[in-house]
Write a structure and sequence with these properties.
By secondary structure, the chain is an all-alpha fold. The chain has 6 helices and no strands. The protein has one domain.
Protein backbone atom coordinates (compact mmCIF):
# COMPACT_ATOMS: atom_id res chain seq x y z
CA UNK A 1 0.00 0.00 0.00
CA UNK A 2 2.82 2.43 0.81
CA UNK A 3 4.38 1.78 -2.58
CA UNK A 4 1.19 2.81 -4.35
CA UNK A 5 1.00 6.03 -2.35
CA UNK A 6 4.63 6.78 -3.07
CA UNK A 7 4.18 6.19 -6.79
CA UNK A 8 1.06 8.36 -6.85
CA UNK A 9 2.80 11.18 -4.97
CA UNK A 10 5.80 10.94 -7.30
CA UNK A 11 3.53 11.13 -10.34
CA UNK A 12 1.71 14.20 -8.99
CA UNK A 13 5.00 15.92 -8.11
CA UNK A 14 6.35 15.15 -11.58
CA UNK A 15 3.31 16.72 -13.21
CA UNK A 16 3.76 19.87 -11.13
CA UNK A 17 7.43 20.39 -12.03
CA UNK A 18 6.84 22.17 -15.36
CA UNK A 19 4.89 24.83 -13.48
CA UNK A 20 8.00 25.51 -11.40
CA UNK A 21 10.34 25.61 -14.37
CA UNK A 22 11.83 28.74 -15.90
CA UNK A 23 8.99 30.21 -17.98
CA UNK A 24 11.40 31.11 -20.78
CA UNK A 25 13.70 28.11 -20.54
CA UNK A 26 16.54 28.06 -23.01
CA UNK A 27 16.12 31.73 -23.90
CA UNK A 28 19.16 33.47 -25.36
CA UNK A 29 18.95 36.71 -23.38
CA UNK A 30 21.49 38.57 -25.50
CA UNK A 31 19.62 37.68 -28.69
CA UNK A 32 16.34 38.57 -26.98
CA UNK A 33 17.61 42.03 -26.07
CA UNK A 34 18.88 42.61 -29.61
CA UNK A 35 15.55 41.53 -31.11
CA UNK A 36 13.61 43.62 -28.61
CA UNK A 37 15.73 46.68 -29.39
CA UNK A 38 15.25 46.15 -33.12
CA UNK A 39 11.61 45.01 -33.28
CA UNK A 40 9.84 46.46 -30.23
CA UNK A 41 11.47 49.60 -28.90
CA UNK A 42 10.41 52.04 -31.62
CA UNK A 43 6.71 51.21 -31.24
CA UNK A 44 6.83 51.31 -27.44
CA UNK A 45 8.81 54.57 -27.46
CA UNK A 46 6.25 56.19 -29.72
CA UNK A 47 3.44 55.17 -27.37
CA UNK A 48 5.22 56.32 -24.21
CA UNK A 49 6.76 59.65 -25.15
CA UNK A 50 10.21 58.42 -26.07
CA UNK A 51 10.79 56.02 -23.16
CA UNK A 52 9.62 52.62 -24.35
CA UNK A 53 10.60 50.94 -21.09
CA UNK A 54 7.66 52.68 -19.39
CA UNK A 55 5.39 50.03 -20.89
CA UNK A 56 7.09 47.52 -18.58
CA UNK A 57 7.49 49.69 -15.48
CA UNK A 58 4.20 51.60 -15.32
CA UNK A 59 2.07 51.10 -12.23
CA UNK A 60 -0.89 49.73 -14.20
CA UNK A 61 1.05 47.26 -16.34
CA UNK A 62 -1.09 44.45 -17.72
CA UNK A 63 1.31 41.52 -17.50
CA UNK A 64 0.66 39.47 -14.38
CA UNK A 65 2.23 36.16 -15.44
CA UNK A 66 4.84 34.68 -17.74
CA UNK A 67 2.04 33.17 -19.81
CA UNK A 68 0.46 36.60 -20.36
CA UNK A 69 3.84 38.03 -21.34
CA UNK A 70 4.46 35.23 -23.83
CA UNK A 71 0.99 35.69 -25.32
CA UNK A 72 1.47 39.45 -25.64
CA UNK A 73 4.77 38.95 -27.47
CA UNK A 74 3.04 36.52 -29.85
CA UNK A 75 0.17 38.98 -30.37
CA UNK A 76 2.52 41.88 -31.13
CA UNK A 77 4.49 39.69 -33.52
CA UNK A 78 1.34 38.68 -35.40
CA UNK A 79 -0.25 42.13 -35.44
CA UNK A 80 2.89 43.91 -36.61
CA UNK A 81 4.01 41.22 -39.04
CA UNK A 82 7.48 41.00 -37.52
CA UNK A 83 7.84 37.39 -38.71
CA UNK A 84 9.62 36.28 -35.57
CA UNK A 85 10.11 32.58 -34.99
CA UNK A 86 8.84 30.99 -31.74
CA UNK A 87 12.42 30.82 -30.43
CA UNK A 88 12.78 34.57 -31.13
CA UNK A 89 9.64 35.24 -29.12
CA UNK A 90 11.01 33.06 -26.31
CA UNK A 91 14.30 34.98 -26.39
CA UNK A 92 12.47 38.32 -26.14
CA UNK A 93 10.34 36.95 -23.31
CA UNK A 94 13.43 35.77 -21.47
CA UNK A 95 15.04 39.18 -21.83
CA UNK A 96 11.92 41.06 -20.68
CA UNK A 97 11.36 38.67 -17.80
CA UNK A 98 14.91 39.05 -16.56
CA UNK A 99 15.04 42.81 -17.06
CA UNK A 100 11.57 43.84 -15.86
CA UNK A 101 9.14 41.16 -14.71
CA UNK A 102 10.94 38.44 -12.73
CA UNK A 103 8.16 35.87 -13.22
CA UNK A 104 8.94 32.38 -11.92
Amino acid sequence: MNTKRFLFATLIAGLALPALADPFAGADLKAGKALHDKQCTSCHSAKFGGDGSKIYTRADRRMKSAQQLAQQITTCNANLGNKLFPEDENNIGGHLNRQFYKFK
